[in-house]
Every structure is written in structure tokens, then in C-alpha cells.
Amino acid sequence: MSAETLPQRPVLLTGASGALGRVLTRALGEAGWTLRLTDRVPFPEPLPEGARFQLADLEDGPAILRLAEGCGTILHFGGISVELPFETVIGPNIRGLYHAYEAARREGARMVFASSNHAIGFHERSAVLDDACALRPDGYYGLSKAYGELMGGLYRDKHGVESVFLRIGSCFPEPTDARMLATWLSYGDMTRLVMRATLAPSLGPDGTIVIWGASNNSRMTWWGRDGRDTIAWAPQDSADPYTQALEAKTSGNPVVERYQGGGFTGLDYSRGNSGKS
Ligand SMILES: NC(=O)c1ccc[n+]([C@@H]2O[C@H](COP(=O)([O-])OP(=O)(O)OC[C@H]3O[C@@H](n4cnc5c(N)ncnc54)[C@H](O)[C@@H]3O)[C@@H](O)[C@H]2O)c1
Question: Do 275 and 259 contact (CB within 8 A), yes or no?
């Protein structure tokens, strides 16, 4: 492996036992990366060579600081990944995120943060957003991701910590409904994105960049300019072959179909109409 494909220092991956964490562990392990893995539940598969796993709760600050010792990048994928009550989200996604950022500050590490389209989910589907668009979270989960991006801004301005904010669309083995014809991010494209976010020598003058995490889908007309050229990433896969099978698979809910965040926007929605007033 050349210096271009291997990070210079070990990489800490939080949320390693989760769906995307396992995909990344396999792929980055195969690529020969030295990985420190952590999650609050055990890692359910054999560990690749060069990987160490340690159980820890993101809410345990000292444990996260110890885990990050010597690491040059933190891939922060741990936390609540769906819409849940505020009190459930706040510990893992806000306090846990703070611990991850404190670790990045101490180690001089780059943060690659698994943000989400739900940080901007209340933009309408007719809008074309760029990386400077307003944050419009569609629930407490999306709010925690928006807060994460703001925290990244604070740690950049105050401590010089670099961040890549991955606004992931729908990262699953394959798309399963009409919305995902726009938002789907293949596992391969996600893995290459994380690799480039880690290996890119510079994130440009600002030190933080946003990337829209979607594959090369014809229906992805919602998301425009972002920082992908800075890290030399371009998606290679596409949801297009699933169009015929999925285009009729919509929710039938006018709120859900109106906004980019889809199903999360309709959860506990009480505005009393289709969001028109
Ligand atoms: N999969 C997607 O389509 C998608 C889309 C947008 C954003 N994301 C983000 O990407 C990341 C990974 O997503 P995923 O689909 O693998 O989710 P996942 O739920 O499968 O994995 C999250 C992991 O975080 C761990 N975790 C939760 N709370 C924790 C805590 N307090 N301490 C330690 N570990 C804790 C869980 O045990 C789990 O293994 C998440 O941050 C998610 O919000 C995913």
C-alpha cells in the first residue's frame, strides 16, 4: 500500500458495530488501514487484521479520549441513527459528539462526521441546495446532526480542527422506495467517500467541507455544489436501474412527499395541513 492509500496515523471509527460501521471496518481493514473500533455493543464479526475493538459508550468522555490517543482521523459514525425522543437522542448524539470533538482537538485529528440529509430535511424537494444552504432539521435526530455541523464549525474556528460533514442520503445495500431513487448512496460510494475524506491532504482554506452523500442518481436534482472536488471524490454507482421497480413506491402522505427528508418529516407532524401555511 502506498502513502496515498494508507493514513499516516491510526483511524478511530465510532459506531463500528452498526450497519455502516461494519461495512467500513471490512473495507478499510482489507485496504490495510490500522483501525481502532468502538461501539456500545460488541462487534458482531471477526475483526480484520490491524483492527482493535473496545466497548465504550460515547457518553463516557475519558474512554473516548483514551481510544483516540494517537489517531489522526476520527470517523464518527456512532450514535442514534433514527428519529427518537429528544431525551434519547441528546446523550449519544450531543454529549457523545462533544467527546468525539474533544478527542479530535487533543489529537490534532481530522473529523469525518456522519451527518445526514435530515439536517436539511424540511427543504422542499423542488429546491436545489448547495453546501451553504440553511440547516432545516426534520426532527430531533436531524437537529442533532445540524448541531454536529455547528460544533464542527466551533472546533475549526477555535481549535483548527478539520471536519468533513457527510450529509448522507440513504445508505443501504439497495434502494427500496421512490425517494431513494434520489437519495441512495451505495456502500461502495460511501466507502470511497470516507477514504477520500480521510486521505485528502487538505480540506481547503476553510478547513470544513460538506459533501452530499448520494450516488450518481439521475433523480438527485436536490443537491448541488459541495466540497467533493476538494477531496477528489465522485460517486460511481447509481440507483437508476431500480427506477421501474420503485418509482410508484411513494408514501401517499403529502407532507412526506413534499419535503426532502421524506418519512422523518411526517413523524409527529402537527402543523395541521400539508405544510402549506
Ligand atoms: N444509513 C444511512 O442511510 C444513514 C443516513 C444518514 C446518516 N447516517 C449516519 O451514519 C451513521 C451510521 O449509520 P448506521 O446506518 O450504520 O446506523 P446504526 O444504527 O446501524 O449504527 C449506529 C451505531 O452507533 C452505536 N451507538 C449508539 N449509541 C451509542 C452510544 N451512546 N455509545 C456508543 N455507540 C453507540 C450503535 O450501537 C450502533 O452500532 C449514524 O451516525 C447515522 O446517523 C446513516
Answer: yes
